[in-house]
């Protein structure tokens, strides 16, 4: 068994020697195995492993992400972020969105009893809600100016199978999960609901005003076709 460094960590690999013509490396279940001809020296193997280091590291990382219950991938404005959960001796949860496409969720130790899956779900929902509270106001104002109409109020609330809804031509409801999509799609969904302030049904005039202001609306509809509108 030999080792080589990866930043502050160490990657171990096992060498299996046999009557082979070629050397090949496998990464299975996070374990690195080097299959080499019997006559290869340790230095020769080490040299080849170093050449393949980036590939090995990527495979190990891929395995760790798939099998680590503390890591989950979510989207914010169409960009993928890895969510990592840590438990510390703190009183209230903390959430940090980092520049390296990573979201760090730090939870009080007492939350360990609840379970990672439920905690991740709650934390991600809260994150989308916070982002929506920061972003939606400006988007609503932009669309109000664009269309010349406005709802009596808007509400950010979790909804099943819907990203947006307009009721009685007065109130617009926005699902905070909308924040996972690109801003063009967010604006499309909200514009769609604004159009319902004027036309309750999806008739000819509804789509005329929608297409005039969002020419690529059909493209955006396809990206969120699993939701009702």
Description of the structure:
- 39% of the residues lie in helices and 29% in strands.
- It is of the alpha/beta class and 229 residues long.
- The chain folds into 3 domains: 2-67, no CATH class; 71-127, no CATH class; 131-223, Metalloproteases ("zincins"), catalytic domain (Zincin-like), CATH 3.30.2010.10.
- The protein has a 4-stranded mixed β-sheet with strand order 1-2-4-3, with helices on one face. A 4-stranded mixed β-sheet has the order 5-6-8-7. A 3-stranded mixed β-sheet has the order 9-11-10.
- Helix 3 (116-147) crosses helix 4 and helix 4 (183-198) runs antiparallel to helix 5 (204-213).
- 19% of the residues are buried.
Helix and strand element order: EEEEHHEEEEHEEEHHH
* Shape, per Cα inertia axes: elongated
Number of strands: 11
Write down the CATH class of the largest domain.
Alpha Beta
The whole-angstrom Rg is 26 Å
**Corresponding CATH superfamily of the largest domain:** Metalloproteases ("zincins"), catalytic domain
- Quote the CATH topology of the largest domain: Zincin-like
Total domain count: 3
What is the CA–CA distance across the termini? 59 Å
Topology (SSEs and partners):
Elements: E1 2-6, E2 9-18, E3 24-28, E4 31-37, H1 42-51, H2 53-67, E5 71-76, E6 79-88, E7 94-98, E8 102-108, H3 116-147, E9 153-156, E10 164-167, E11 171-174, H4 183-198, H5 204-213, H6 217-223
Helix pairs in contact: 3-4, 4-5
Question: What is this structure, in a nutshell?
Answer:
The protein is of the alpha/beta class.
Task: Supply the key terms.
single chain, 229 residues, alpha/beta, Zincin-like, 3 domains, 4-stranded mixed β-sheet, 11 strands, 39% helix, elongated, disordered N terminus
């Amino acid at each position: 068994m030999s080792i080589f460094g990866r930043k502050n960590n160490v990657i171990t690999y096992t060498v299996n020697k046999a009557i082979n013509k070629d050397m090949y490396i496998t990464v299975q279940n996070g374990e690195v195995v080097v299959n080499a001809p019997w006559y290869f020296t340790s230095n020769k193997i080490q040299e080849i492993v170093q050449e393949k280091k980036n590939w090995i590291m990527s495979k190990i990382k891929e395995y760790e992400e798939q099998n680590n219950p503390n890591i989950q991938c979510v989207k914010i404005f169409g960009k993928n972020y890895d969510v990592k959960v840590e438990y510390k001796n703190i009183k209230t949860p903390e959430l940090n969105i980092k520049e390296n496409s990573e979201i760090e969720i730090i939870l009080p130790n007492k939350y360990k009893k609840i379970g990672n899956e439920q905690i991740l779900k709650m934390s991600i929902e809260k994150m989308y809600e916070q982002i929506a509270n920061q972003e939606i106001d400006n988007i609503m104002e932009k669309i109000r100016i664009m269309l010349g109409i406005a709802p009596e109020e808007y509400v950010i609330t979790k909804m099943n199978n819907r990203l947006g809804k307009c009721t009685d031509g007065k109130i617009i409801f926005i699902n905070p999960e909308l924040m996972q999509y690109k801003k063009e799609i967010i604006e499309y969904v909200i514009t769609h609901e604004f159009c319902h302030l004027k036309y309750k049904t999806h008739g000819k005039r509804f789509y005329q005003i929608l297409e005039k202001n969002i020419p690529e609306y059909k493209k955006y509809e396809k990206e969120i076709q699993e939701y009702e509108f």
